[in-house]
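For anyone still unconvinced, we reproduce a single protein record, the chain in one-letter code, the fold tokenised, and leave readers to judge:
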Amino acid sequence: MIGRGEGLQVCVVGATGLVGQALIAEGRQWPRFRLTAVARREVPLPPGARLETVLAPVEEWDAALAGLAPAVVVCALGTTRAKAGGEDAFRAVDVDLVLAVARAAKAAGAGHFILVSSVGAAPGSRNVYLRAKGEVEAAVAKLGFRRLDVVRPGLLRGRRAERRPLEWIAQVLAPVLDLLLVGQGRRYRSIRGERLARAILGLATEKAGGRFVHEHDGLLRAEQRLTGPRG
């Protein structure tokens, strides 16, 4: 179990989304981490949350990250084609902006980058969403971070700011459907936002260098590094 009371600075980019909000909420329980954020607009904070936020247009995020000089950067940016308004707008966020954040993090001296991707991500996928995720994974891997953790969750369960009716239905059904996903299919199991957040915080403390990919079971192991074995 990880001790408390230190101050590892972890900067979250994408703090207004489900994963970012879960990280902020979980950060209240783990004073070892000093969470910061770079965002375009005000970041909602749960009671008791501690978060230094730098608000800036995306064109100035490189300067914002340089000013914070974080040890670890978590990129939880992401959208959908429907929300973005088309494939080009979707790729502008999930590929171009994510890669720009990674480059800015590297230039700011962050040696550890944690990228929130998706299960099934692959540059050669026929699925537009999964292809974009795979392409940006490959591009970020070429930047030469001391450590790169690629997080590939299945369906994320939790409350989002925007309504996604089909996803809401999937979240309701997920606990039952997860039981059917066994063997190699376990990688597609859903995960609650707070558990993913704890897994990310667990990964943030890792010292070994290299590139690591974490799917469902790996994320649960990373969570246990933070919290200790569950009873």
User: Anything to note?
Assistant: Residues 1-5 have pLDDT under 50 and may be disordered. The beta strands are 8-13, 33-39, 52-55, 72-75, 112-116, 147-151, 156-157, 191-192, 210-214.
